[in-house]
Each structure stands twice: as C-alpha cells, then as structure tokens.
Design brief:
By secondary structure, this protein is an alpha+beta fold. The chain contains two helices and eight strands.
Length: about 140
C-alpha cells in the first residue's frame, strides 16, 4: 500500500469518524430537547383526573371550597365551587363553573379560566395547592 493511499484512507476514516461523532452529538442533543419539551406535557398528564378539597362541614361561618376540579389530558380544566353556610341567616350564593386551560412550569400550575385564574403548586402526585385551597386526587383517580 502506497503512502499516498494510506494518507487518503486515514483522511477518509477521520472524516467518517468526525461525521459519526457529529451525528451522535446532534441526535443526543435532539433527544435532550425532545425530552425537555415533553416534560410539561408529562407533568400535565399526571394531573389528569378529578380533584377535590376536603372541608369541615360543621365549621362555623361561611366556607367557600372547590368541590370538584377536573383536568383533561389536552390541557383543559373544569372547576366547580361550592359553599357551606353554618349561620342562622345565610345569604344566597351564585355558584358558577370555571372552565379554561391549564399549564405547568416545573411544580407551578396556572389555570386560566373564564371566571377566575388560579395559581399554585403541585405538592405530590395526590396533592395540589391552588390559591390556599389544598386539593387531593379523588379516591377513584388515586387508585389508578
């Protein structure tokens, strides 16, 4: 094998190795970008289902609470509030259904609704806190 042919083969081999390294680095970077892009969606998927706020029904006074909060996999929510009044003369309350979209950023959750916006944190897979309301996954969803 001549020296010139050996140099050409080494050069071609070096180029092939550089190309392979570049392709590996690119696909690794792309995989990291894809994994990072999927992280919020994965977090949203963990929120999917029904949540409720535990409340002391015998507590004196008026208690506003979130009776049912449902998250869907497509980033939407439905919130039904309720009121318990333990007074002799209770005012009339208008209960509305707050619907809209939600998004997560790390452990932070934002609900953009038609009646109100809520902000909070995801404490665990079964507990979230929204504007001082502590909600737990319902028993049916917790068992899944």
């Amino acid at each position: 094998m001549s020296a010139q042919m050996k140099t050409t083969m080494q050069s071609a081999l070096g180029t092939a190795l550089l190309l392979l390294a570049a392709m590996t680095a690119t696909s690794g970077s792309a995989a990291a970008q894809v994994a990072g892009a999927d992280a919020p969606a994965a977090h949203q998927a963990r929120l999917t289902g029904q949540w409720t706020e535990s409340v002391d029904k015998d507590r004196p006074g008026i208690t506003h609470y979130i009776q049912k909060l449902t998250f869907t996999p497509d980033g939407r929510f439905e919130q039904i509030n309720n009121v318990i009044c333990n007074l002799d003369d209770c005012p009339v309350f208008k209960i509305g259904v707050n619907t809209g979209t939600y998004r997560t950023e790390g452990r932070t959750i934002h609900l953009d609704g038609n009646l109100s916006d809520l902000h909070g944190t995801v404490r665990s897979s079964n507990t979230i806190v929204l504007d001082k309301h502590v909600l737990h996954r319902t028993a049916a969803d917790a068992s899944e």
